[in-house]
Design a protein that fits this description.
The complex is a heterodimer of chains A (414) and B (187). By secondary structure, chain A is an alpha/beta fold. Helices cover 39% and strands 17% of the residues of chain A. Chain A folds into 2 domains: 11-186 and 221-253, 3-Layer(aba) Sandwich (Rossmann fold); 260-407, 3-Layer(aba) Sandwich (Rossmann fold), CATH 3.40.50.920. In chain A, the strands form 4 sheets. In chain A, strands 9-11-10-13-14-15-16 form a 7-stranded mixed beta sheet, with helices on both faces. In chain A, strand 10, helix 9 and strand 11 form a beta-alpha-beta unit. In chain A, helix 3 packs parallel to helix 4 (88-103) and helix 10 (310-317) packs across helix 11 (339-349). Chain A starts with 10 loop residues before the first strand and ends in a 7-residue tail after the last strand. The longest helix of chain B has 17 residues, at 169-185. Chain B has 7 helices and 6 strands; from the N terminus they run E-H-E-E-E-H-E-H-E-H-H-H-H. By secondary structure, chain B is α/β, with parallel strands linked by helices. The two termini of chain B are 25 Å apart. The radius of gyration of chain B is 15 Å and the shape is globular. Chain B is 38% helix and 19% strand. Chain B has one domain: Pyruvate-ferredoxin Oxidoreductase, domain 3 (3-Layer(aba) Sandwich). The chains are: A alpha/beta (414), B alpha/beta (187). The interface between A and B is medium-sized, with 29 and 24 residues. Strand 8 of chain A pairs antiparallel with strand 2 of chain B.
């Protein structure tokens, strides 16, 4: 029986520590891991908890991230509660196996500490790894600070393991900005947290020898499509369970999560759509801009990136007052508009309001995103709103040195 | 909002110091941030650590800050780092040095119009005398308590003891002595 961990009502934890405490409290059975900066402390701490008797699980050291996720799949198919952590290059090496985990409907929890992808080699935070995995069939949730990294990791088990869902879940947090920033965190007591997550309910457990099953089967054109269609439906339908788990978490803690977080959108004339720790910086920037200059700015932040909250984004955008929206992508777009811009724009097309939408690429490789820069971008949106058309290139870059970069123009307002 | 920027070398304990300060502050019901940028930095490389302290939840996640206090815990960094970067009219500087205040300021042009806001303490020597090795992170916090009037010394010592509980008693006692000496010796 695992020992109880002595916790204060308020702890000062960074995002990594917060996530590792959630893994401990969920009493994860198996962590198969290959540590990588900046997510290393998550699995390192779990190893410490195990060695010191705070978890009854097992830490499996493997030779690569590909093997780490493969080990997680084996353990999950065997009927255990399984989790691991990774970042960046490790995430990229895991990519092949991520699709296996979701296709096999194994509710593994992956805490992803977002970091840039090489080359050039870079250990700082951006969303390249998050974007790389967005079509891998996992539920993707996004924490904006260390408290949320803790909360969402607990919720991840409860969402993924729900028998109506049975899908793996990623909990993203920003490398360094969240993972290495200690902030006030209010943890649950061990028993409370475990009770919330609940006992693991195995499905088609490989270690149930009375009922042999096959995992990871091959299907060609005869059945593959039906499997993938069902998997997609499960992902789309998981919104109901996600909402229920968030509601239950609110009852327990008073902390409220929604699939799309929105701030000051009721009367907003311009809005910033953003992910990760920059959400809070943007909210602060918007509050100040409202107070000092009376610019009606709001912020929209997808809390759940997959399944993409198309419905809720539409609701946020379909406001008569809303004229201009900027989508902030923290990942190198690789010859296209940013992914967030594309997805938000698609949702916007189905609304009546159809605000103007522009795109900024920002923060690559950990480039700082300041309140002042957020306000400059917000005021630029106000200029579009006042002019009735987009006054800059549609895609621009924030905080990059060298000649000004921008792509595509339009004079069309609607 | 109080913002504190640490100028340190990797291995001097700035991160531990920033987190220790954060833990003490959090016990008083305030919100804190303690963070640093490191990872591929090797021992001895110049680095920054940061604290933010406020009565309400802290939303600003930018690294950039306009510090109220600048703590320089390696003597040479006062010369080689841009320690006055993004400062304010009332930014207070606490610098580890074995020079006199006049000697120090005469060699750092950026400080010459802020002499009344420069405070010195030999945190390196204090840590050598008390802890037995160069570990200027806890003494600088003693100096910060004196300069900032953030907390009474005894209150800070009591709470810092709780932060250090995982260490042997001898180390805790040495740190308490280091904090007290720096509190009394900063000028």
């Amino acid at each position: 029986m695992a020992k109880e961990f002595d916790l204060n009502e308020v702890e000062v934890w960074d995002g990594n520590y917060a996530a590792s405490q959630a893994l401990r409290q969920a009493q994860v059975d198996v962590v198969a891991a290959y540590p990588i900066t900046p997510s290393t402390p998550i699995v390192e701490n779990y190893g410490g908890y195990e060695a010191n008797g705070y978890v009854d699980g097992q830490f499996v050291m493997v030779e690569s991230e590909h093997a780490a996720m493969s080990g997680c799949i084996g353990a999950a198919a065997s009927g255990g509660r399984v989790a691991t952590a990774t970042s960046s290059q490790g995430f990229a090496l895991m990519a092949e196996v991520l699709y296996q985990a979701s296709g096999m409907r194994l509710p593994i929890v992956l805490t992803v500490v977002n970091r840039a992808l090489a080359s050039p080699l870079n250990v700082r935070g951006d969303h390249s790894d998050m974007y790389l995995g967005r079509d891998s069939g996992w539920i993707n949730t996004d924490a904006f600070n260390s408290q949320e990294a803790y909360d969402l990791t607990l919720c991840a088990f409860k969402i993924g393991e729900n028998l109506d869902v049975r899908l793996p879940v990623m909990v993203h947090q920003d490398g360094f900005t969240t993972s290495h920033k200690a902030q006030n965190v209010k943890p649950l007591k061990d028993a409370e947290a475990y009770k919330f997550v609940g006992d693991y309910k195995p499905v088609d457990d490989m270690l149930d020898f009375t009922r042999p099953v096959t995992h990871g089967a091959q299907t060609e054109e005869d059945w593959h499509f039906e499997h993938k269609a069902r998997q997609h439906k499960a992902l789309m339908d998981s919104t109901k369970v996600i909402d229920e788990v968030f509601a239950e978490f609110k009852t327990l803690t008073g902390r409220e999560y929604k699939r799309v977080e929105s701030y000051m959108m009721e009367d907003a004339e311009v809005a910033m759509v953003v992910l990760g720790s920059s959400v809070e910086t943007a909210v602060l920037a918007a509050q100040e801009l409202r107070e000092k200059e009376g610019v009606k700015v709001g912020v929209i932040a997808p809390r759940v990136f997959r399944p993409f909250p198309f419905d809720l984004i539409r609701e946020e955008l379909d406001r008569e007052s809303l004229k201009a929206v900027v989508c902030m992508d923290k990942s190198a777009p690789g010859g296209a508009m940013g992914a967030l811009f594309n997805e938000i724009s698609a949702a916007s097309l189905t609304t009546k309001a159809r605000p103007m939408i522009t795109n900024y690429i920002y923060g690559l490789g950990g480039r700082d995103f300041s309140v002042e820069e957020a306000q400059r971008i917000m005021k630029e949106q106000k200029a579009h709103a006042d002019a009735g058309h987009i006054t800059t290139e549609i895609q621009q870059f924030s905080g990059v040195r060298g000649p000004k970069l921008g792509f595509f123009e339009t004079r069309r307002g609607k | 909002m109080v913002e504190i920027r640490w100028h340190s070398r990797a291995g001097q304990g700035a991160v531990t110091g920033a987190k220790g300060l954060g833990s003490v502050v959090a016990t008083t019901g305030k919100e804190v941030q303690a963070y640093a940028l490191y990872g591929s930095a090797k021992r001895g490389a110049a680095m920054n650590a940061y604290n933010r302290i406020d009565d309400k939840p802290i939303k600003n996640h930018a690294t950039k800050m306009n510090p109220d206090f600048v703590l320089v815990i390696d003597p040479a960094l006062a010369f080689s780092d841009d320690i006055t970067k993004n400062d304010k009219e009332n930014t207070q500087y606490i610098i580890t040095t074995n020079l006199s205040k006049d000697e120090l300021i005469s060699q750092i042009p950026a400080l010459q119009d802020k002499t009344d806001r420069v405070h010195i303490v030999d945190a390196i020597q204090i840590s050598l005398d008390t802890i037995g090795r160069s570990m200027p992170n806890t003494p600088i916090l003693g100096a910060l308590m004196k300069v900032s009037n953030m907390y009474e010394l005894d209150f800070f010592l009591d709470n810092m003891k709780k932060v250090l509980t995982k260490f042997p008693q001898k180390i805790i006692d040495a740190n308490m002595e280091a904090i007290t000496r720096a509190y009394n010796e900063v000028k």
